[in-house]
Amino acid sequence: RSPTPRPSSPRSSPRLAMPVTRRAARAAARQAAAALLLEPPTEIVAHILKHCQLTDFCSLMRTCKQLQPAVEGALRLRADEAGHHLPKKLAEETSCRARVHQLLQLERRRKQLTRRTIAAGMSHSLFISKAGELLSCGTEWDVDGNPTPGLLGHGELAEEDVPASSIHVPTLIPTLRGIKIRSVAAG
What we know:
With 187 residues, the protein is α+β, with helices and mostly antiparallel strands. The protein has 6 helices and 4 strands; from the N terminus they run ααααααββββ. It has 2 domains: 23-114, no CATH class; 118-176, no CATH class. The longest helix is centred in the N-terminal third of the chain and has 25 residues, at 14-38. It is elongated and about 70 Å long.
């Protein structure tokens, strides 16, 4: 006859038991929340989920496989409402998980492009390079047609006989070299 296992004392290993219990409780809570989203039709859930942040979509994907069609529907609705076209290649993917990952990648790219990297004024334009450097080009004239020295950010370009000068090719603004620019506005 084998000896019966003794009940563990509170001092034996409380640290090992607690994380497993917490982890199990969190997993059960996530599953319960996901179950609430599985009850209504997928189209309704997609309309609810389309307002989520991108990180929430990733969490939902990890939480419950059954939510993947609803997440895909939400991302498609989000793209349609924003006027974005989805690539044809997306329809060819066989797995729902792969389609959702592609949709999330597209959404992340679109989010990165929402910052303004080009701006135009009356007679000048500003650009941000991929490295975050600010470039400008145009002429140093203001809205009223008056010379405005320094408008392009390269110092005074005007010569003695010409009231305002111009730069025809986007040129790095030297005083901002080494400073990373994220967004730009002009005009």
